[in-house]
Amino acid sequence: MITITEQKPIEEITQSLGKAKKVYLVGCGTCATICYTGGKSEVLDMKEKLEAVGKKVTGWMVVPTACDELTKYALEEQAGEVKKADAILAMTCAFGVQTMAMFADKPVYPALNTLFVGKEEAPGQFIEVCMQCGNCILATTVGICPLVRCAKSLLNGPCGGSVEGKCEVSPDIPCAWQLIYDRLAALGKLDELEEIVPLRDWSTSREGGPRRITIG
Ligand code: SF4
Ligand code: SF4
User: CA–CA separation, 213 vs 135, rounded Å?
Assistant: First the structure.
């Protein structure tokens, strides 16, 4: 499972960079490389694009995992080239941007939009698999998450709108509840579908500021 990203339009990136004429580029060797948004070739492509609009790239690197605290040491190793830059352009997910913003003594701008946590279905095709709701119900849905895979996030599906196993919102999207039904049937557990799931407590989800946990 990886963090899925897409590249922002170059116009938005140059607008963010504003008066920063000299830029240091950082890519990520994990999720952004798998998404083709922040690996070596994308970083070199971005270098060309920035130079084409008059920016000077003082240097670049692709760190192993941008969100890892070791990125601090990677920045220190490249201190000479980083120091010459007015800003860092992060071709990483938002976690990488925030990690670098903790350690760098200059502005860090995102070159990517962070979309969701997902997996690669086929080369270059990514699908969301978890919205990190904080109260996982996969035990009752045979490992298929209806919160992200059902267009209505139904806890008691199906809605009755699916056609030939596809969701009513698009023939390209498998109906999550059809998938759950099929898997329950294959496992001989169809009777579990008769249990009504009560209203959900969403307080564990993304409301009321950043979530925190202390692992004891
Ligand atoms: S129920 Fe919540 S934690 Fe579990 S897979 Fe779905 S979104 Fe993720
Ligand atoms: S057709 Fe299936 S996936 Fe689509 S909204 Fe209805 S239950 Fe959810």
Answer: 13
